[in-house]
Task: structure prediction
Amino acid sequence: MSDQKFSNAMWGGRFASRPDAVMEAINASIDFDRKLYAQDIRGSLAHAAMLCDTGIIGKQDHDKIAHGLNTILSEIEGGTFQFSRSLEDIHMNIEARLKEIIGDAAGRLHTARSRNDQVALDFRLWVREELQHTIASQNALMKALVDRAEEHAATVMPGFTHLQTAQPVTFGHHCLAYVEMLSRDRSRASGALARMDECPLGAAALAGTGFPVDRHQTAKALGFSAPTANSIDTVSDRDFAIEFLAMAATCAMHLSRLAEEIVIWSTPQFGFVQLSDAFSTGSSIMPQKRNPDAAELVRAKTGRINGHLLALLTVMKGLPLAYSKDMQEDKEAIFDAAQSLDLMLTAMTGMVRDLTVNKAAMKKAAGSRYSTATDLADWLVRSLGMPFRDAHHVTGRAVALAEERGCALDKLGIDDLKSLHPDITQDVFSVLSVAKSVKSRTSYGGTAPVNVRKQVKAWKRRLAKA
Ligand code: ARG
Result:
């Protein structure tokens, strides 16, 4: 290793010796921030072009710098670039190599710039791309759910409260509940994108710069609407990263709920769905098993995303302005959360697309546990003009009677029903079946198949535009 290959050599003058090995170990971020190489080079190219256009550096130097940076890009992508831990981070690894390739002109690139605005830019660019990718993955899962909802607009299943059979619902309606959640997650992602649409470059270390930089030029070149307005905030701010994690944690929480339902539904006891071979595993000892490992892991990965959100909030809490090295701890949290969320969304899309729905088992369960009791009470209110509370009481007695007879509500004889209230007529049977129950729930947002079909149509239209 040459004498120059450690980071103290980069800031020369005051530092006579290289850092302690432990200092290097705690300080270096290259093992993870090398992920930012493309963003770092893109930012440097835009910065160099602006320095040239404003006359801060000469055209020859600019051309050398641009050529050198592009060479480095191909070296990294071709796997021939030598990353060095002693050069601390991605920024200094690239700058040191630039010097090897183009010589002294490399030293001009860092004019009117600091690693503080540089890292704020690189990381923002990375998070921005990841948010766009997340939105695409959320759309894919929403599409899969909408397709299943269309197919199962009239498939009945028990709806639960307290995980106890409550009222019959349609499986399509249940699928669309997750589409609603995902659409809120997607809007959190686009909200975060809109708020981070400002370019940090030019804030320099914290105070801005005396060079006549054109921050609007670099902002535009890098696809931002404007430069950030306050240099101190610019280098201190990691809200965009925290917002990514908050969105990811909320989305993961939603996915974990669907994952948990898939775990429950696929047990032999429920038997509502069967996961495809592609998304289940067997047991090494029990040949009959089909385990929902992918769903379980989606459920579990939520934990690490929550942890990352809490970790970054804790790193940032109480940090005085402006930049502190603490902020280097932001990256691993996001990298891991982004990778996890992406896997979760993709695995969930596969599971949802592939799973077999056992309509017969759902229908049977939908009719069990007197799930249409509310429909009976509603009939008493509507047809006999009873106050709901009294109707609730009469229905309770009907349930007790059905329990005693060991039959479903709609299998009670008319005489049994008349014994509870003499005005009850045959007409009551028109509301007691599961299919009739869901069909009647036409209030806006209700579970009726006509509603589900309308919602599916609306979602298809919106998703086609996404
Ligand atoms: N590797 C550093 C980080 O990720 C880059 C910024 C370093 N700035 C500094 N003043 N030491 O935060």
